[in-house]
Model the fold of this input.
Amino acid sequence: MKTPPLLNARRLVFWSAYLALLVLLPLAVHKGYWLSLLCQIGINTVFALSFNMLLGQTGLLSFGHAVYYGLGAFVTMHALRAINASSLHFPITLVPLVGGAAGLLFGVAFGYVTTKRAGTTFAMISLGIGEMVAASSLMFPSFFGGEGGVSSNRVVGGKGLFGITYGPQIQMYYLIAGWAFLSILAMYALTQTPLGRIANAVRDNPERAEFVGYNPRRVRFLMMMLAGFFAGIAGGLTALNYEIVTAESLSAYTSGLVIMMAFVGGIGVFFGPILGAALITVLQIVVAGATAAWPVYFGLIFLLVVLYAPGGIAGILLEQMKLWRSGELRRLWPSYLLALVPAVILVGAVIFLVEMSYALVNSSQTGSSEVRVLGFGLDAGRALTWIAGAVALAIGVALLRAAAKRIAGDRYVPPLPQGRT
Amino acid sequence: MSAPALRLSGVCKNFGVSQIIKSVDLEIVQGERHAIIGPNGAGKSTLFNLVSARFPVSEGRIELKGEDITGLRPYQINRRGLSRSFQITNIFHNLSVFDNVRCAVLWPLGHRYSFFRRLSGLGDAGDRADEVIDQIGLARRRNQPASVLSYAEQRALEIGITIAGGADVVLLDEPTAGMSRSETEEAVALIRRISAGRTLVMVEHDMSVVFGLADRISVLVYGKILATGAPDAIRQNPAVREAYLGASFAGA
Done:
């Protein structure tokens, strides 16, 4: 067999384009708001991919992945304080590695216990360890800083190489982008190694893996350690970026968020969580900025993806690419366009109903049940607005189902299960 | 004379109060093709599960090429050169045919848990996997996910995974179960090819397959070995005839 080149043309184009995107993106956004958003996306991308090393690649659903992220962040913060307090010369550029080392170490300690079993048992133990660590964050204020968290300053001493201090946010962005790119590349490379493939085998059928000479527990343990390492890198970057770490970073909320990012993006494909991290981070900031009812929308999005698109965004994209290659998309796009109409009606109706519910529930505090939604002034206290909303919802659902049926009828062949390589 | 490929001495297996395997003594000679037959519920698959450590034995001792393997984990036994297939197809469904087979050759080729080397750069693993895929006749299906294969193809892949690692003792659990006549013939030819130079033990219901392939046969009835011997001796054994009510042997 001929050994294929390390970087074939397609991969080279893909990774170069990704690198170029990371380098050029901040030039397109001038406001600090968007730059902070990009920083957060970069951190979350590494975090979500590290989570998917477990779920998508090894078949381990962790409810406590924030433990490695959060502890990585806390240890990094204490390292930063030590660097600040002493005349120790440790380059800030390499500080995220401290988080990675901490994540790896806790991955070894906790992973030894959690990876004894797979499946539901693993999920439950990961939940238990997550709760345990989150609870201990309030019990040991000297390390976790209590409710206020731990803070420090990432600008240490004088100027470094080329006058880089990591003071300005744009310098911090490039530090995050650099570490994110290296981490993503390393995590991708891992999927192409013997361990990466055997992890897939253990995911599909741990018993069979054992009968071809592999100890599934060892495979799970190794993947857990590596996932802890990369989650720790993401935690280290968070510590540097915000210069403060609170108990929220290792809480069940953060563990839930990373599940959502990976799942919405798509756990079946390597790049899925990259898309999920970007989308969820943007939504988190944009939607939360627009409405106080944002957790409801998050729940709805997660629910819809789990029910109707279990392959996530990446799954949908791959499906469309297949249709495009077979030439079917050309016949399908009018049906797609047609489906857009009920989709807009449905989304509009849902937004109206959610906002009206929110206004009604809070009317005792605000003293008014009136609410402005998408430019319309509505009174949530009147039955008529509710009936109108419900009718719009029903029409949207009915039409969208008809449209989905039409699309399904337009296709020649049912979709084949997608093979993972 | 070399040690037997497998030696079972006084092997028992209890599930709760019921004893499924009752003190089995059995020697499998190196290089032979040995079939284990017996009526339904005799404990044939259980015996396989004990030898391959899928279940722990309750009593007794199992030796592989003279080495005690009682109480070892399945992966440890596999690394000592014993490999098995399953009655119910047991493959990696989301992986391609090629990756299914390649996973089975990684450990024996010494690649272990490596994460510093690229799979595609491991020429030995790729070559060996392709060789096995040719042997089991799935070259056409090489890059397709195992889940889309037909039943007979999945059975062939099951055998491919079992033999790919180069184990010298191979256990096949009902390799032709659920196959049509022509599929069975192909499977028999395949088993004949892959068993060259190895020790083969198989559980099989199809008597024409058993008597066509096996050098020796053991008959297991109610968890006990009733008889072991060459096909002709087994065919004429009155106790075996009685256990099978004679019917199944008429055409064999």
User: Anything to note?
Assistant: The first helix of chain B runs from residue 44 to 51.
